[in-house]
Design goal:
The protein has 89 residues and is mostly helical. It has one domain. 57% of the residues lie in helices and 0% in strands. It has helices at residues 3-14, 20-35, 60-82. The mean pLDDT is 76.
Length: 89
């Protein structure tokens, strides 16, 4: 992802203001392509096939994946605020 793309994404979402909860699903839906990863897939009745979906059982693996994602997003935010830029992460 290019710095210009990151900036455009962040600028778009800065205007959401205090509507985080209302925009959460749309934000996450648009975040996956920006991170250049495969988006979550719909849940199925077979839990073994639900390794990567938005909703599902809360497992240690899922918690670890979400923690890594949130840590990455926090690092992007810190770099942006400090003026160091994306590439310094």
């Amino acid at each position: 992802m290019q710095p210009e793309q990151i900036q455009a994404f962040l600028t778009k979402w800065e205007v959401s203001g205090a509507a985080e909860r209302a925009n959460a699903h749309l934000f996450v839906t648009e975040l996956w392509p920006e991170l250049e990863v495969e988006p979550p897939q719909p849940s199925t009745p077979n839990e073994h096939l639900n390794a990567y979906c938005s909703e599902g059982k809360r497992t240690k693996k899922r918690l670890d994946e979400m923690t890594r994602l949130l840590e990455t997003l926090a690092a992007v935010g810190r770099a942006r605020r400090s003026g160091e830029g994306w590439m310094s992460i």
